[in-house]
Design a protein that fits this description.
Layout lengths: L3 E6 L7 H17 L1 E6 L1 H8 L6 H15 L6 E5 L4 H13 L2 H5 L2 H9 L8 H4 L1 H11 L4 E4 L4 H18 L7 E4 L27 H9 L20 H9 L4 H9 L5 H15 L1 H11 L4 H27 L4
Helix pairs in contact: 3-14, 4-8, 4-15, 8-9, 10-13, 11-13
Bound molecules: tryptophan and iron/sulfur cluster.
Length: 326
């Protein structure tokens, strides 16, 4: 039997090239080697956006269309929406009974987010329980591997601890999921900070070639290179950081010409924009096609939940039996 892989994403709407290089590219590869489960974590989204749910449906739709267009194939992996699998919520409830509060309080992502989202009331039961729900996502399908970015490692560790505690209390049942680190290097956005929707600095997979060109033209370069004849420093240039991803075949040239001031920044940017645009050609065609198919996303998610639910039901049946709730 093939090993199982599971990962999820909160519905963030349209995806950007950071999402692609950070995770999706890896997910697409994994489809061929493992039984893969990829899901829209809409309940997790609610932990911080419960006060504005207006975009939830549309963000889910946009993200799933991007998933499909980028090459996640509903025939080769199971794509579903968390909230279509109510068994996940029930498993999360059982896990919440056996998870000490102290484990959750010391979770670094919890502490960080509390700081970051200060203006918002997120000191809620649901929010502190975020990793418990995540453990339920993972363990309900008995995932062997979980592709995630580095920031998610504490959550995965908690999932393992919850599995261990369950096994200790009710006899061995869950395996301990392992991480597959997906993020090699964070892509910078056009302002040089990490690419993120919330910073407004992202290049989206669905951006048109002209939008990409415009955004790349606005990118921060070497701040010390004021005139064309000033030698540049590629190591501090955001444009160069993206060339590392999109132009590996001519990287040496770019670097030398930049340092020798034989290459202008505008030209350098336009080449990058073209590279990014070209890499998205196929994606763009598929996305346009999928957008035209009404009901496609709904149908894909429905199909996916039909595959995931029997597995979830079987796990829950066993959990209930062990906890004497039948
Ligand atoms: N917490 C993850 C994130 O913010 C999303 C997520 C929810 C997830 N459940 C998961 C990831 C289970 C992997 C496995 O990116
Ligand atoms: Fe950056 Fe290219 Fe300008 Fe060098 S030439 S500073 S790499 S944009």
């Amino acid at each position: 039997m093939r090993k199982r892989v599971l990962s999820g994403n909160r519905p963030t709407g349209k995806l950007h090239i950071g999402h692609y290089h950070g995770a999706l590219k890896k997910w697409i590869e994994l489809q061929d080697e493992y039984d893969c489960f990829f899901f829209v974590a809409d309940w997790h989204a609610l932990t911080t956006t419960y006060d504005d749910v207006s975009r939830l449906k549309n963000d889910t739709r946009e993200m799933v269309i991007d998933w499909l267009a980028v090459g996640l194939d509903p025939l080769r992996c199971v794509l579903y929406r968390q909230s279509d699998i109510p068994e996940v919520a029930e498993l999360s409830l059982y896990f919440s009974m056996i998870t000490p509060l102290s484990w959750l309080e010391r979770c670094p992502t919890y502490k960080e987010q509390l700081q970051e989202l200060k203006q918002k009331e997120i000191a809620t039961h649901g929010f502190i329980g975020y990793p418990v729900l995540q453990a339920a996502d993972i363990l309900i399908v008995h995932a062997d591997f979980v592709p995630v970015g580095e920031d998610q490692l504490p959550h995965l560790e908690l999932s393992r601890e919850i599995a261990r505690r369950f096994n200790y209390l009710y006899e061995d049942y869950f395996g301990e999921p392992k991480a597959i680190l997906t993020e090699v290097k964070r892509l910078p956005g056009i302002d040089g900070r990490k690419m993120s929707k919330s910073y407004g600095n992202a290049i989206y997979l669905s951006d048109s070639p002209s939008a990409i060109k415009r955004k790349v033209r606005r990118m921060i370069t070497d701040p010390q290179r004021i005139r064309r004849k000033d030698p540049g420093h590629p190591d501090v240039c955001t444009v160069f950081a993206l060339h590392e991803v999109y132009s590996s075949d001519i990287l040496g040239n770019i670097e030398t010409q930049c340092r020798e001031a034989t290459r202008g920044c505008t030209e350098c940017k336009d080449i990058l924009a073209e590279r990014i645009s070209d890499s998205l050609k196929e994606f763009r065609a598929r996305r346009t096609q999928f957008e035209k198919e009404p009901g496609l996303v709904r149908q894909v998610l429905k199909q996916g939940s039909h595959k995931a639910r029997p597995i979830a039901r079987a796990t829950l049946r066993e959990v209930r039996r062990r906890m004497n709730i039948e």
